[in-house]
């Protein structure tokens, strides 16, 4: 469920890919059975393409990566987290409009 610009985050690579990233990182926490997650998937793909080279954009499958999901305290999905310098700077729960996410990515990447 990822395209060439959308990364796949896992329990194994989360620390390196997200927490230690020099770029801002947008993490979409989703699951295959989640209808709203499927609804926002095209938006995440578009953002990954729009911000390629400036912001890392990826998905974390909540079911396959329960350790990270629990550590992050995620209780409902989709949850979208925006990281900068290893810290969460924005959190969105539910389907979020592309322009809302893009505005936050613009600030984080500035």
Give your account of this protein's structure.
It is a single chain. The chain is built from four helices and five strands; from the N terminus they run E-H-E-H-E-H-E-E-H. It is an alpha/beta fold and 110 residues long. It has a single domain (6-103), classed as Glutaredoxin. The radius of gyration is 12 Å and the shape is globular.
Task: Tell me the total number of β-strands.
Answer: 5
- What is the strand content? 25-35%
Q: Distance N terminus to C terminus? A: 29 Å
CATH superfamily: Glutaredoxin
Note the main sheet. Answer: 5 strands, mixed
pLDDT < 50 runs, ≥5 residues: none
Strand order of the largest sheet: 1-3-2-4-5
Backbone CA Rg: 12 Å
Outline type: globular
User: Helix count, per DSSP?
Assistant: 4
Category from helices, strands and their pairing = alpha/beta
**H-E order:** EHEHEHEEH
In CATH, what is the class? Alpha Beta
